[in-house]
Write a structure and sequence with these properties.
By secondary structure, the protein is α+β, with helices and mostly antiparallel strands. It folds into 2 domains: about 80 residues, no CATH class; about 50 residues, no CATH class. The chain is built from 6 helices and 4 strands. The strands form 2 sheets. It has a two-stranded antiparallel ribbon with strand order 1-2. Helix 6 links the parallel strand 3 and strand 4. Helix 1 crosses helix 2 and helix 1 packs across helix 4.
Length: about 140
């Protein structure tokens, strides 16, 4: 049996991936540590100060070896600052380009040095500068 401590921003799912190679290892982790409720575990008694017992076999050895070889540990828990940064402030609501539908008000086309050749190129050529969104892609074909 091995014991580990969670790192900053790690949760039980991260520990399962780190030690067992998959979130499937979470069941082994919960059983080894007598945790019956994940939500209360994350709030009450699991922190960077507690030891977690690791028992059982790897689920995906290659994933574990990946983390060990690179000396990395998954840490996907969001901090309060992460959450604060992910919320769009009210002043930016209904700003920007909004939603567009390809080939309706957003047209994907290829660059053309000469005048338009196909019907779709003619439509694109005629609508340039009219407020319709455009995206130029490389190659010879129109992307649909």
């Amino acid at each position: 049996m091995v014991t580990i401590k969670l790192e900053e921003n790690q949760n039980l799912f991260d520990a399962a991936v780190q030690e067992f190679g998959s979130v499937e290892g979470l069941f082994e982790l919960l059983e080894s540590n007598d945790i019956t409720n994940i939500t209360s575990a994350s709030e009450d008694n699991i922190s960077v100060y507690n030891d977690l017992k690791i028992q059982g076999d790897f689920v995906a050895r290659d994933v574990v070896e990946f983390y060990v070889a690179r000396e990395k540990k998954p840490a996907t828990a969001l901090t309060n600052q992460d959450i604060k940064l992910s919320v769009i402030p009210e002043e930016f609501h209904n700003k920007g380009i909004g939603c567009m539908t390809i080939e309706d008000d957003f047209i994907v086309h290829t660059p053309s040095q000469a005048k338009p050749i196909t019907c779709i190129e003619k439509v694109i050529y005629d609508k340039m500068g009219s407020g319709i969104g455009f995206m130029t892609v490389g190659g010879d074909n129109i992307v649909r």
